[in-house]
Design brief:
about 140 residues, Rossmann fold, 2 domains, 4-stranded parallel beta sheet, 4 helices
């Protein structure tokens, strides 16, 4: 078996709440099942470790040469427009030979936006059909 030379990093904002990370861990597990020969890592902008520079360094230490960063942010706000390029540049400077490609924000991916629209419509239908019985259900 050939060792992996590429990896995927799921990049999210971060939170002080330790439970917040659970959906990202579940996503990582699903992606690991889909991309069996590819290392999948989590990295966070703030509040939770590891950060992106650390993760890219750890991947580089394992011989990874190409990294896809998937920013799980809804839009290209300041974090993605300004901070992410600086973070990636720093990681690449520290780890020469590692090439990093960042994907678009989740809200810019048509298939994901359609999935959100489908989910919203389903939830609306469920609310209309539900016997709520009280104001919060």
């Amino acid at each position: 078996m050939v060792a992996a030379d590429s990896a995927v990093v799921i990049f999210a904002h971060g939170s002080r709440d330790p439970e917040w990370v659970r959906p990202f861990e579940a996503l990582r597990a699903r992606l690991e099942q889909r991309l069996l020969d590819t290392p999948i890592a989590l990295a966070f902008l703030e509040q939770i470790r590891p950060d992106l520079v650390q993760v890219i360094g750890e991947l580089a230490d394992k011989g990874i040469q190409r990294v896809t960063v998937l920013p799980l942010f809804m839009a290209q706000g300041r974090h993605l427009r300004e901070e992410l390029p600086r973070i990636v540049a720093r990681a690449c400077e520290i780890n020469p030979g590692v090439l990093v490609r960042t994907s678009a924000a989740v809200g810019e991916i048509e298939s994901l936006m359609q999935a959100i629209v489908d989910w919203a419509a389903t939830e609306h239908t469920r609310t209309r059909a539900a016997d709520l019985g009280h104001p919060v259900a």
